[in-house]
Amino acid sequence: MTIIRQDDLINSVADALQFISYYHSIDFIQSVHQAYLREESQVARDAIAQILINSRMCAEGKRPLCQDTGIVTVFVKLGMEVLWDANMTLDEMINAGVRSAYTHPDNPLRASILADPAGLRSNTGDNTPAVIHVSLVQGNTLEIQIAAKGGGSENKSKLVMLNPSDSIVDWVVKTVPMMGAGWCPPGVLGLGIGGTAEKAAVLAKSALMDPIDIHELQTRGPDNRLEELRLELFTAVNGLGIGAQGLGGLTTVLDVKIKDYPTHAASLPVCMIPNCAATRHAHFVLDGSGPALQTPPSLKHYPQVTWQAGTGARRVNLNEISTTDVRHWQPGETLLLSGKMLTGRDAAHKRMVELLDQGETLPVDLKGRFIYYVGPVNPVADEVVGPAGPTTSTRMDKFTTTMLAKTGLLGMIGKAERGQVAIDAIKAHQAVYLIAVGGAAYLVSKAIKQARVLAFAELGMEAIYEFEVVDMPVTVAVDSSGSSVHQTGPAKWYQIIHSQ
After folding, report:
1. Is the pLDDT of residue 84 over 90?
2. Local structure of 370: helix, strand or coil
3. pTM for the complete prediction?
4. Pick the CATH number of 314-490 from 3.20.130.10, 3.30.2310.20, 3.40.1550.10, 2.60.120.10
5. Residue 378 gets which letter from DSSP?
6. Architecture (CATH level 2) of domain 151-277
7. What is the pLDDT of residues 319-353, one digit of tens each?
8. Helix pair angle (346-357, 397-407), 10° resolution
9. Quick count: other Cβ atoms within 10 Å of Cβ 388?
10. Rounded mean pLDDT of 417-439?
11. pLDDT of res. 1
């Protein structure tokens, strides 16, 4: 029998969550670096460089890799010989660890969890509760796999009930382009095959906990059908030309992980869940000897990658920008933004559109301004703002026509593609859409020199801020004529890949 103490589990969970907030796993770093070295698309290579630089900065500064510090998912294997020295339930202990991690004074993590999801959607304030899966197994230890899953990638999860005769590869190849770039590629795809609908989803999420090893598999060759399928999907998905951040390039996925389970003769459930460029997971075992604390990696494992905007980058003063100026910007062009911009996400946009529909005046003047879709982490020490990377822009698409038509908003900054409704509105109003690199939140925050809340302070990280930035790097994604780099880039690289 093993006796596991309550505080040992709480402290182990808290330590793991703090650890993965600023340390990528070494297998991920090495895989991203190899993708960087192979990449031939300059705009995709630049995006990967920023991800690698951000990763090293976070490891050195112990600050979050991404402003979205995730919903906590925990897989527990509880040995049946384990006894407890505890007065809390297993779920309560795990959530106490989550609470401790997300409210740590030296590195507070963004609280993103909302209670009453179909109603008031009120923030719980400490990122609890976690999503917990428990299995009773033989043995006398407690094994934990824990992840912090960002909403951008989680929202791209797909579940299908295929016919037994259908091709899984065909479905994946058809579906991945429909996911867009909001999951921040390059990343990892997790597939769950079999069981029932809910079992396939749990399998897919669990598969993402495994280390990246596709290149070892390519070297030794497959031993079974699942390994054959991994290799087939890895080649097929990268052959789509989607590339880093959906800009077009050679690497869309770093690995494809698959787990399966026996299923009904009439069924073929398949779930696909992506992990983003801020992949975060850890593994530990408690055996009664005390807490299990993570071991920091050596910085020697991090590549020395540098990034410069280059001589062709256009410097833009946001304080003096005009409609005429933005008409000269081209899709794929690099801009360095300086001056004042506003911020706003889903909740702020909903409030503003409601005010406009009621004929009321907005608390901020948007005419000729740029709005950045971001929910930053709270600052610590002498920081102006914590990590402040972009959120997925398609969530704002339904507000875009109203915002552009009624406020005089000139430009938007976020991540990933825009839907056709938003693109049409951008074209109609001669506006522009820019992207920052998802997965480079700490790097982006260093360009922000001042930050103050202007409106909706009660929304917390979703309040409207005014940022003053210096040389914030962005890419033109949709120009004023409605041309989208997320359409032209992948199409170009698909042709390049398949002509070789």
Report:
1. yes
2. strand
3. 0.94
4. 3.20.130.10
5. P
6. 2-Layer Sandwich (3.30)
7. 999 999 999 999 999 999 999 999 999 999 999 99
8. 50
9. 30
10. 96
11. 83
